[in-house]
Design brief:
The chain is α+β, with helices and mostly antiparallel strands. It is built from four helices and five strands; from the N terminus they run H-E-E-H-H-H-E-E-E. The relative contact order is 0.11. It binds zinc ion. GO terms for molecular function: DNA binding; DNA topoisomerase activity.
Length: 128
Amino acid sequence: MATVTGLAEDELESLVVLTGTATFKKEKPRNLVLRRELASYIRKFEVPRHSDAEVYAAVQAIEDARHERSAETDRAHRLSLTKAAANPLCPVCGSQMTVRVAKKGVNAGQQFLGCTNFPRCRGTRQLA
Ligand SMILES: [Zn+2]
């Protein structure tokens, strides 16, 4: 998305909005909100970082880069979701996760997924 919009990676907030009545079997990822939560999620960002013109240009760039909807793009999207489920991203920063072994604490010796940005990010997930 940074390539498409020309914005820096840290200027973008990746977010998936679910419509309908979704419930989660596990902890809800940080970058996923229900539609009814969207307004309060947006209000968390109090300081505008871009002018209206910059936002419009970024939205236009995304629209211009959008793939035509087709059976082929639907299939590619489903495949990418399957791959994403097999390789979950960090719930804190969205980076890749890697298998680590807890060195101390009550889980010492047990494997877990840790963020590849450790020690800058301390995001973890349980191994499925
Ligand atoms: Zn992380």
